[in-house]
From TrEMBL:
Predominant location: membrane
Keywords: Cell membrane, Ion channel, Ion transport, Membrane, Signal, Transmembrane, Transmembrane helix, Transport
PANTHER family: NEUROTRANSMITTER GATED ION CHANNEL
The protein's name: Neurotransmitter-gated ion-channel transmembrane domain-containing protein
Keyword Metal-binding found: no
Pfam families, sorted: Neur_chan_LBD, Neur_chan_memb
Gene3D superfamilies given in the database record: Neurotransmitter-gated ion-channel ligand-binding domain, Neurotransmitter-gated ion-channel transmembrane domain
Localization of this protein: Cell membrane; Membrane
Cellular component terms per the entry's GO annotation: plasma membrane
Transmembrane annotation, as ranges: 160-183, 219-239
Source organism of this protein record: Heterodera schachtii
Residue ranges occupied by any Neurotransmitter-gated ion-channel ligand-binding domain in the UniProt entry: 9-63
């Protein structure tokens, strides 16, 4: 509600704000409210701010956003036939991302880490190696879409986060499938070695079994070493570049 002096006119407004959610949930928003005359030029109606123009009867509390700064300035609206007096009230808002760290980031990291237990599972528990990444992937999809507060036609920072986290889970599933394929191949070769017609043939097949075992052991060890390193590199890139990316370039890529 605005109060216009000296006539003490009170105006109730329902303004809106065109927000850019490219960096959601680490975004800052800038919203403006403009007051101008439609028919009267500045010589007839001159709007001026008082020394203390912005007063609130009570503390304003927003669900996610907090007001960083408010400023009252003069403005000039383009496209008007008659130049008129104009006042602008600018709000600078900052989203509090602590809730998203607790509700989105930490649970998704824990779910992804749970999918990394596959290389540590004994090789005779084949179902666990396959079921675990699939379950985690379905959990991440539900976690991303279950309580989606912002729906946009472009990727937000949180969307990029979940895309990469799901990609890590899919890679874990692919690694498990590759290891299981090697294990089944090794078992088939070992079964063939037991039926070998000669000692020479049996020795060749046993050597092949050992070679296959070394392959999937090496693949598991490589996954154990590279997965944390790759995630830490992505986390650093996400914090430094994704959540602080330029909004104009984000929208230009979307429009293009």
């Amino acid at each position: 509600m605005f109060k216009l002096c000296p006539s003490n006119v009170r105006i109730t407004l329902l303004p809106d704000c065109q927000m850019n959610f490219c960096n959601f949930p680490h975004d800052s928003q800038r919203c403006g409210l403009y007051i101008s005359s439609i028919a009267h030029p500045k010589t007839m109606l001159d709007l001026q701010w008082e020394p203390r123009p912005i007063l609130f009867p009570r503390k304003i509390s927003l669900p996610d956003l907090r007001i960083k700064r408010m400023a009252g300035t003069n403005c000039q609206l383009p496209g008007k036939l008659i130049p008129s007096s104009c006042l602008a009230l600018v709000f600078e808002l900052k989203r509090d991302s602590a809730r998203y760290v607790a509700e989105r980031y930490m649970p998704s990291i824990l779910a992804m880490l749970f999918s990394w237990v596959a290389p540590y599972v004994p090789y005779n528990y084949e179902e666990v190696r396959i079921i675990t990444p699939i379950t985690v992937l379905l959990t991440l999809v539900q976690m991303e879409k279950g309580n989606q507060e912002v729906i946009t036609s472009y990727l937000t920072s949180l969307d990029i986060w979940f895309v990469v986290i799901k990609a890590f889970t899919v890679l874990s599933l692919i690694e498990s499938l590759a290891v299981m394929a090697y294990i089944k191949k090794g078992r088939a070769v070992e079964s063939e070695a037991q039926r070998a017609p000669s000692e020479y043939r049996r020795d060749l097949l046993q050597a092949e079994v050992k070679r296959i075992e070394r392959l999937y052991h090496r693949l598991d060890h490589l996954t154990m070493a590279l997965s944390p390193v790759a995630f830490l590199l992505f986390l650093g890139y996400y914090v430094q570049f994704v959540v602080q990316r330029d909004l104009s370039s984000c929208m230009e890529r979307h429009v293009g």
